[in-house]
Structure formats: structure tokens, C-alpha cells
Amino acid sequence: MTSPPVGRRERKKAATRQAIADAALRLFLERGYDQVSIRDIADAADVSTTTVFKHFTGKEALVFDQDEHREAALTAAVRRRADGQSILDALRRHVLDSWLPLAAHPQMAEFTDLVDSTPALRAYSERMWTRHTDALSAAIADELGVRHDDLACAALARFVLQIPVLARGRPDRRAAVEALFDLLAHGWEPAGRPAVQS
Nearest CA to 74 among 102, 113, 110, 53? Predict the structure, then answer.
């Protein structure tokens, strides 16, 4: 089944939204988050401030403009996984396919510095991370037929969402992601301890 074609109006709205987000990120990286106003962003995108607020709830949302899409993709990785594919394998594939290209983007280091150095963005990021954890935990619980407050589902969701953060500074990000998912799949062994022979 194919998706219905996107109409001209929807394409125009999406293009306007993207132009606003691009202008905002460029200005934030050039001047710093606190030195840029909504009016500055509107002027740079050649739209009114009203148009900015039609597409975004505020300045923080302009930085994390793909937030809703990322959460939907994360839960879809669990709910729409292939027959016979485990939840953990589906999440591993999702992180490898979606986060690795993003982490390799030339502006990623600048973006990370912007978020880390701006208290309002750090706080927004933490709230977003909590929302993603809750959504992913609920999706895992639904697939397993358990309650949404299941501790194991919450722990798995939290750890999976932490994997990009843990792998971010490693020289081989792919190997780090794989190692972290292997840890989840097979359990932890202290470094240097020989494997137990059965």
C-alpha cells in the first residue's frame, strides 16, 4: 500500500517550517541561543512572527524541530518490526540507521555544544528525553502485553535512549553502539574476567 500523495499546500507548509528551522539553527550557531529573538528568526526566514508560532511552540522547539518525528520513528521501530525480529534487534537497527548518520553530520559538534552550553536548551532536552523514554517504554510494554509502568520496559527504554550519548565521544561510534546493545542482549561481565566455561 502506498502513501497518498502530499498535496501542494502540505508541501508548502513543510517547506516553510523547514526554512524557519534552518534559519533559527544558523542564527543560534552564529550568535548564540540567547542573543537571537523570534523576530530575528522570522526576518531571516522571510516570514511573520505569527507564522513562526504557527509552526513552533517557542524557541526551544526550533532547536529540536524533529522531536515528534524522532519519537514516532522510535516507537515505530518497536511496533512495526519484522516478523521474528526481537524488540532489542529492532531498536539496535533503528539506532544504527538513524543516529549514526546524524552523529556524522558536520554541524553535530556545534549543535551539541549549543545545547550543552545553554541552560534552557539543556532543560528542554532533558524533558524531551523523558517524554521519549515514556513513549518507548509504553511501546515495549504494549508489545509484551504488560502494564505501562513495568520496570523492565522502563529500564530498557532508558538504556536504549542513553546509547547515543554513551557512544557519542567514541572514535568508532558504530562499534560502541554494537557493544552497548551486546551488553543489553548478553549481560555485563567485568572487564578482564575470563569467560565462565560450561
Answer: 102
The contacts of residue 4 (CB under 8 Å, 6+ apart) are none
Report DSSP state, residue 36. -
Q: Is 140:157 a contact under the CB 8 Å cutoff?
A: yes
- Distant-in-sequence, close-in-space partners of 181: CB < 8 Å, separation ≥ 6: 88, 91, 92, 95, 163
Each residue's pLDDT tens digit, 8-46 = 888 898 899 999 999 999 999 999 999 999 999 999 999
The DSSP letter of residue 171 is: S
Q: Extract the C-alpha cell encoding 154.
A: 522502563
pTM: 0.77
Listed in sequence order, the DSSP H helices in 32-172 are: 38-45, 49-55, 59-63, 67-79, 87-94, 100-103, 108-116, 119-144, 151-167
Which of the 8 DSSP states describes residue 174? H
Helices 119-144, 67-79: crossing angle, 10 deg rounding: 20
Quick check: 180 and 168 in contact, CB under 8 A?
no
